[in-house]
Amino acid sequence: MAIVSTMPKKGEAAKAYDIPDAELSKFKEVQATKGTYDETQDKIQGAEEIGGSGAVDLDKMDVQAYSDICICYFTYGGRVYYKYIYCWQDCP
Hints:
Radius of gyration: 14 Å
Low-confidence stretches: none
Shape: elongated
Structural class: mainly beta
Mean pLDDT: 82
Number of helices: 1
Oligomer: single chain
Order of helices and strands: EEEHEEE
Strand order of the largest sheet: 3-5-6-4
Largest sheet: 4 strands, mixed
Number of strands: 6
Distance between the termini: 18 Å
């Protein structure tokens, strides 16, 4: 069995689903990329911010703490989606 989670819009909760291995071939795997805030912010211009587990809300942070912030982003259906995470977190 595989555990698959949703990538909700900012402010929404993620959901997790238990998918039988035999059903996984029906789904497309999406590769996510992680980069530091400074090196990646230009790659997400016009993209849609998502929320969910592990997402950091920059509106509630001091700008001095951005050195510990990375951006996790991926392309799906021709659109770019991203979320802010701490750099020590994995990028799902």
